[in-house]
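Risk register update: the risk of archive-format incompatibility is retired. Evidence:
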Amino acid sequence: MEKLIVNLDATPATPSHLQINPEDQITSQAKGEIEWDGEKVVFHLESEQVAGGCVQGYDLKKRLMGLPVLPAATVDFLLAHPETIPESWKTKKVILFWGTFFRDVDGRGMVRGIYWWSNERWCETWAFVSEGFDAGFGTAVLVD
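Archived output:
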């Protein structure tokens, strides 16, 4: 398979009713250009999620500070190159990319994600940060 490069600093596809504010972003997000290797991405869960509970989204965002969370530009790459998504990801409910934080016209926070739909194809999804996130909603984090 050819080597594919992901520009993590690229502006992600953004619907017209959403905006990206620099002050809202997780500053530890992964940056730069990387050679894509899905095996170097972990599905991060907080201890409450692993134990069967939920973590409120804004609390989760604070906890993710310091981790190299992947940005939404990764979603654009993955949807353009679904063959590069590890088979193991198909067992996850939703994989969220907290490295880009969006706000809608009412100021509500949102993050972008992907999920395996009906054993057929990868789809994008959006999650309101005001919600609680259980073990089905992991965060894509880059590891060395």
